[in-house]
Amino acid sequence: MIVAFSVAPSGGSSTDSVHDAVAAAVRVVRESGLPNRTSSMFTEIEGEWDEVMEVVRRATEAVGAYGSRVSLVLKADIRPGHVGELDGKVERLEAAIARQEA
Q: What DSSP element (H or E) covers 100?
């Protein structure tokens, strides 16, 4: 499965940095060893249900240290039996774009 998620603190001081909180979450994801990618809006992680959700939980907890509340947005692509889709989906999209441009 692939999960795209965004997590951010709220309820902290006006001087608190959201970047530091997000960096703590991304560090948890990267240290997990699961395939992942971070963009300006979301972090994507690929793996089995339990392992992915455990990483999301720990990333959310890491952000929780930066405020009294945490906002979590999560989208999942659950496709049993498929691996390597974090890159595979993008590769198929780029191939389709190239065919249409030809």
A: helix 85-101
Q: How far apart are CA 9 and CA 1, in angstroms?
A: 26
Residue type, 22: V
Angle at 40 between CA 76 and CA 64, to 5 degrees: 70
Closest CA to 11 of 70, 68, 71: 68
pTM above 0.90, yes or no: no
pLDDT tens for 11-52 read: 766 566 789 999 999 999 999 999 999 999 999 999 999 999
CB 28 within 8 A of CB 60: no
d(C-alpha 54, C-alpha 1), whole Å: 13
Tokens read off for 20: 């530091």
